[in-house]
């Protein structure tokens, strides 16, 4: 018989903490800038986090020491190219968030093929493990890096315009400065 309140044997999470109902996340690249902020947010929500990082672009100092000491965050030093390690970490997690990538302009310029292969193969290994252990929470995969945020494709601009027309009517994109030219003026430099 399960107990009625939060605590051992309960299905409820302990407010402000973690319990049986909390979710365990695997965050690859979790010691980097974006990954460490995501980790902070997840533990603030009462979840547990496994951080897998090789520290090539991040730092263990980015992670909350108290969360590591309390067991809410477990740091695993390793690469997403190590299929066995990724598989073990994914098996322990409920959800997998892939943020690890070889980064840095100089590194990419010096070794473009090696960097590309590392990023593609790393993503492939993580996705295979997530699929094998059924850790893909949605049908969409969201992973990204800071370097891509300033570019919008024609398809993205058209989708934005269509969404705005559906929400606000056909004149939604026609402001005083737009003069009916459509959404492309929003992204011109």
Give the SSE map.
Blueprint: E1 24-28, H1 33-44, E2 48-53, H2 65-70, E3 73-77, H3 83-92, E4 95-98, H4 105-110, H5 112-132, H6 154-168
Parallel strand pairs: 1-2, 1-4, 2-3
Helix pairs in contact: 3-5
In short:
Helix content is 37%, strand content 11%. It is built from six helices and four strands; from the N terminus they run E-H-E-H-E-H-E-H-H-H.
User: What is the arithmetic mean of pLDDT?
Assistant: 75
What general outline do the C-alpha atoms trace? globular
Number of helices: 6
Main pleated-sheet profile:
4 strands, parallel
- Compute the CA-based radius of gyration: 21 Å
Care to count the β-strands?
Answer: 4
Distance between the termini: 65 Å
Structural class by sheet pairing and helices: alpha/beta
Pick out the low-confidence regions: 1-18, 138-142, 146-151, 176-180, 182-189
The share of residues in helices is 25-40%
Question: Strand sequence of the main sheet, in spatial order?
Answer: 3-2-1-4
Strand content range: 5-15%
Descriptive notes:
By secondary structure, the chain is of the alpha/beta class. Helices cover 37% and strands 11% of the residues. Helix 3 (83-92) runs parallel beside helix 5.
Keywords:
189 residues, alpha/beta, four-stranded parallel sheet, 6 helices, 37% helix, 11% strand, disordered N terminus
């Amino acid at each position: 018989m399960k107990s009625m309140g939060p605590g051992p044997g309960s299905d409820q999470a302990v407010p402000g903490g973690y319990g049986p109902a909390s979710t365990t996340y695997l965050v690859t690249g979790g010691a980097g800038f974006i990954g460490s902020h995501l980790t902070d947010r997840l533990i603030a929500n009462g979840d547990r986090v496994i951080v897998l990082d090789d520290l090539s672009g991040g730092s263990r100092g980015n992670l909350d020491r108290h969360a590591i000491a309390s067991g809410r965050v477990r740091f695993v030093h390793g690469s997403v190219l190590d299929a066995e390690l990724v598989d073990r970490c994914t098996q322990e997690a409920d959800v997998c968030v892939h943020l690890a990538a070889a980064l840095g302009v100089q590194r990419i310029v010096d070794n473009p093929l090696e960097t590309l292969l590392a990023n593609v193969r790393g993503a492939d290994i993580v996705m295979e493990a997530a699929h094998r252990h059924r850790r893909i929470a949605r049908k969409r995969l969201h992973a990204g890096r800071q370097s891509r945020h300033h570019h919008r494709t024609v398809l993205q601009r058209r989708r934005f315009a269509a969404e705005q027309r559906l929400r606000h009517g056909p004149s939604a994109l026609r402001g005083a400065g737009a003069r009916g030219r459509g959404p492309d003026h929003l992204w011109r430099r």
